[in-house]
TrEMBL record:
Family matches, as Pfam families: PrpF
Protein name: Transmenmbrane protein
SUPFAM superfamilies listed in its UniProt record: Diaminopimelate epimerase-like
Organism listed in the record: Streptomyces avermitilis (strain ATCC 31267 / DSM 46492 / JCM 5070 / NBRC 14893 / NCIMB 12804 / NRRL 8165 / MA-4680)
Family: Belongs to the PrpF family.
């Protein structure tokens, strides 16, 4: 099933319909998506990391979850499949897909699906309308980066097991640059845009073409990855890098996010959740840039094509204690685009995939 989830698009599969062997599975998915090829002309991919994604869904043996969700990022112009990160965008379609495939029995008005994100072990609960026991994709919810409206998918993230500040510090100096390393569902490095000699309001394409910026971002990402306990992150898509600038449109912060070298035209759900939590960290790099509301947990994260609203809270505890994430929830939308059979290109013509686990 091809679905839009949030501001991404991907192919959703039942785990039982794919090879059990990871290498064979990845080889098949590269051929399904048309990789490696900058245009992905011979497959389902849309020639961009945001449209070269796969969700693998299964019934969960975990009593705390209804389904398991494995996210796979498929390289566009590289023969690479990685499971090193979650994807909060495709997460928005997992609940509806599980109901469509009969993995979860729908309610009469709405359905909540408990989802174990297998990439990291984190849990999410997605609630969406199912009038008459059928998924309804129509509605009035609107999200930036997606034309029109659709039914809301409310996703709540209970506190995960990963430390909010993987390095234990509110601020680190990485490759000569002050940063805040945060993980509230997505390992993310927060950087003041001004510290990299950019404004943070530039068009994503202009930032991508800045060779000096790319070199600095790569150095920061490689060093931060090691500090965050991720090991050698060369060739992977985590941690994400988010440049921060004061908001322009009444939100809390303006962002430009890199995945890892392409500048996101919006921002992913989990990346935004990490940014939002990071803004609340006392002494973090976003503290002097953000415009936080005086009351309530809701924050608006601005990005190149609009905004993303979410609710997040953290607990600082005693003086000197590392803060802990308490609650994160976001409203997204998803839509079924087509449901059918995909015909992958012949294995004889496909390069050998490179795995990054």
């Amino acid at each position: 099933m091809l679905m839009r989830g949030g501001t991404s698009k991907g192919a959703y599969f039942l785990a039982e319909d794919l090879p059990a062997d990871a290498g064979a599975r990845d080889d098949l998915l590269l051929r399904v998506m048309g990789s490696p090829d900058p245009r992905q002309i011979d497959g389902l991919g849309g020639a961009h990391p945001l449209t070269s994604k796969v969700a693998v869904v299964s019934v969960s043996a975990d009593p705390e979850a209804d389904v398991g969700y494995l996210f796979l990022q498929v390289g566009v112009d590289t023969a690479q499949v990685t499971d090193r990160q979650n994807c909060g965008n495709l997460l928005a379609g997992v609940g509806p897909f599980a109901v469509e495939r009969g993995l979860v029995a729908p309610g009469d008005a709405e359905t909540s699906v408990r989802i174990r994100m297998l990439n990291t072990g984190d849990l999410a609960v997605a609630t969406f309308p199912t009038p008459g026991g059928r998924v309804d994709y129509t509605g009035s919810a609107e999200i930036s980066g997606v034309p029109g409206t659709a039914a809301p998918v409310v996703i709540e993230f209970p506190p995960g097991g990963s430390p909010l500040l993987p390095t234990g510090l509110a601020r680190d100096v990485v490759a000569g640059t002050p940063v805040t390393c945060v993980d509230n569902g997505m390992p993310t490095v927060l950087i003041a845009a001004s510290s990299l000699n950019v404004k943070g309001y530039e068009d994503p394409k202009d930032l991508e073409e800045d060779v000096a910026l790319a070199d600095r971002l790569r150095a920061i990402r490689l060093e931060a990855g090691r500090l965050m306990g991720l090991g050698d992150v060369d060739g992977t898509t985590v941690p994400k890098l988010s440049l921060l600038a004061p908001p322009l449109h009444g939100g809390a912060i303006m962002t430009r996010t890199f995945i890892p070298v392409r500048c996101h035209t919006s921002i992913g759900v989990l990346g935004a959740a990490s940014v939002a939590a990071g803004l609340r960290v006392e002494g973090g790099v976003g503290q002097d840039l953000a415009r936080l509301p005086a009351h309530g947990d809701r924050l608006r994260i601005e990005h190149p094509t609009g905004f993303l609203d979410l609710e997040t809270s953290i607990e600082h505890g005693a003086a000197g204690a590392v803060p802990v994430a308490r609650r994160t929830a976001v409203v997204r939308t998803a839509r079924k685009i087509f449901d059918g059979t995909v015909f992958p290109r012949s294995a004889a013509t496909a390069p050998t995939p490179a795995r990054h686990s």
